[in-house]
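Hey, resending since the last one bounced:
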Amino acid sequence: SQQPRYSQPDNLKAEVASAFFDFSKTLFEIKTTINSTVKESKIRFRLVQGILIGLSILLILVATITILRYERERLRQVEQLEKGRRELLSELVERQAAEKTLADNEQLLRTVFDYSPVAIIVTRLADSRIVDVNDVFVASSGYERTEVLGRTFQDIPIWGNPADREAVLQRLTVDRQVRDLEFQFRIKDGHARTFLLSANIVDINDEAHILASGRDVTDLKLAEDRMMWLASFPMLNPFPIVELDLEGHVHYLNPTAEKLFPDLSQQGAGNAWLSDWESVTRSFRNGGTKTAVRE
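The structure tokens again:
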């Protein structure tokens, strides 16, 4: 049998066609590979992109929540600071008001202390040292303030009888106060004066002190003695003394009158001794005289 024979151009065409086919196949495979790779890359890119977007959203959410929490905490702290500021301001105002009230009270007490009409002296209970005195004490005792401050009663012999002071201290220890006790005090010039003493134990700066006040009654005692002497004059008078009103009612008889006119209290103007009492009172009422004399 004879095989068909091809010409050289035909072989060349066949080879070219075969080569083109192989090249096209290769290009297709390359394209397929590229498309597959690109598709996979797109998928991967989109997956990564989705993950990145998700992470971004998550980060945004976390950042937003963090910012909101921070802002809320900041606002809470601002409110607390504002509340603290208001409370501090209120406390400051109250403290200033309290300090002003305290200063006013101290000024009031100082004014009362300085202008009190009685002598005031403050001594420390522990060592009996004089802490303060007012102007009346200075005027009454004759001692200047600088002479007595910081000193004791052993240095300043004011007590006429030191035992009296010990008795007062004992009573203060028990009762924490004494009222209107009469004592003799010796002033700077050596003269004795009579004072009515009142005292209390008080706490000053958490330390016990004795706040004592004394009223000089020396002149009052002398006046009382004088009044007692004058009051005793009718009682001791050897002449009859009678007190009666214009209607003739007897109010007082001294002992001599009672002895001379024992019935005068009951009889009044009807007693023979007062037989002309009506004419005497008529003269008094008419303003003619205020004195009647007879033998």
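The first helix runs from residue 8 to 115.

Sorry for the duplicate.
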